[in-house]
Amino acid sequence: MAALPLSHLFVLDLTAHRAGPTAVRQLADWGATVIKIEQPSDGKMDSMGGARHGFDFQNLHRNKKAMTLNLKSSEGHAIFMKLAAKADVIIENYRSDVKHRLGIDYDAVAKVNPRIIYGSIAGFGQSGPDAARPGVDQIAQGMGGLMSITGEPGAGPMRVGIPIADLTSGLLLAQAIILALYDRERTGKGQWVHTSLIEAQIFMLDFQAARWLMKGEVAKQAGNDHPTSIPTGVFPTSDGHINIAASGDKMWKRFALAIDAPHLLEHPEHATPGTRSQNRKALNQRIGEVTKTKPSAHWIAALNKAGVPCGPINTIDKTFAEPQVRHLGIARPVKHPKLGDIKVVGQPINLSAAPQPTELKPTPELGQHTDEVLAGLGYDGAAIATLRAGGVV
């Protein structure tokens, strides 16, 4: 098998929680050698309060090595700087002021390694009035406007069912790191790249944000209906519900004929995209009167044949049972020395020249590779024992 595209990179991982580890995972899965650096502890719980052997930690931290290091100690700081001098990338998601207090910020590291790419995520950015505030995903969802447009109209704000600000900020930071690495090939110099939960959340508002910036329109909750493309939403069937997206005149006509409801095309309230939007509630009710007469599978087959986007509304177990999902293989196997054969969520990126390994490496135990990493820096057994006795590792 060809080497993975990031197999030449050496990464130091100072992250915890979710946003930072999401960025690191993108590098680790694609071949980078990653050393996860954690504070010495009993190792039973992760930084979010869950079990280290729990599904969340195992899914976030696969394909890494792990060492413990007390960065607040002078010896620990010195060891970190030795590692930093050899690294290509450092990633952290402390509150914006913490790395400076620890003396491991970009400027400090760049003095020993001017080629370093230093990636940071904070809740609200690296500067400004809120930079030092603690920030977590749900706070960003609320402050960033997402909760105001999620849920049924009039039902009050609603969080999205995944930590979307954490995940998107992590993915964006990974992209920024790869951009900086590519730039380093041209300039020979490293740089500091950073994003934040709030920036990522606003970026993900996308057209809803542009709607305000360009037209002055404040989006509201639309429930399961698409806010601008009508009809797009959830419709009842005789055995449940399905999603249908039939906006635009051509798609709308194909849809009405596919469900054997030409009378919908003749209704004056359905004549144009504008009238369909104005009469959305009545339109959806009329469509529902038709779709509820037959089971979901019937409509999905008929609409797929007609080229109208549609699909089931699955619980997560049914998602992974979908034949197409099975074919794509995004549930990836891991052989864990203590947990046995498990599965985690694989990469959604596919490269023809460097396919993902058939099996991911398990998340390491706390400090599993501490001795190995220290030996690579020239510490012998006696010196490592002294560091361990002193609480440095």
Q: Please name the CATH topology of the largest domain.
A: Rossmann fold
Label the structural class.
alpha/beta
Give the helix level as a range of percent. Answer: 40-55%
Radius of gyration: 25 Å
Form type: elongated
How would you describe the oligomerization state of the chains in this entry? Answer: single chain
| Uncertain runs | none
Distance between the termini: 36 Å
Strand order of the largest sheet: 3-2-1-4-5-6
Report the CATH C-level class of the largest domain.
Answer: Alpha Beta
Number of separate strands: 11
Percent of residues in β-strands: 5-15%
Order of helices and strands: EHEHEHEHHEHHEHHEEHHHHHEHHEEHH
The CATH architecture classification of the largest domain is 3-Layer(aba) Sandwich
Q: Can you walk me through this structure?
A:
The chain has 2 domains: 10-204 and 328-389, Rossmann fold (3-Layer(aba) Sandwich); 232-313, 2-Layer Sandwich (formyl-coa transferase, domain 3), CATH 3.30.1540.10. It has 393 residues and is of the alpha/beta class. The two termini are 36 Å apart. The longest helix has 24 residues, at 164-187. Helix 7 (164-187) crosses helix 8. The protein is elongated and about 85 Å long. Helix content is 41%, strand content 15%. The strands form 3 sheets. A 6-stranded parallel sheet has the order 3-2-1-4-5-6, with helices on both faces.
Outline the fold blueprint:
Layout: E1 10-13, H1 19-29, E2 33-38, H2 55-60, E3 65-68, H3 74-86, E4 89-92, H4 98-102, H5 106-112, E5 117-122, H6 137-143, H7 164-187, E6 191-196, H8 197-205, H9 207-215, E7 232-237, E8 240-245, H10 249-258, H11 263-266, H12 273-278, H13 280-291, H14 296-306, E9 310-312, H15 316-321, H16 323-328, E10 331-336, E11 340-345, H17 370-376, H18 381-389
Parallel strand pairs: 1-2, 1-4, 2-3, 4-5, 5-6
Antiparallel strand pairs: 7-8, 8-9, 10-11
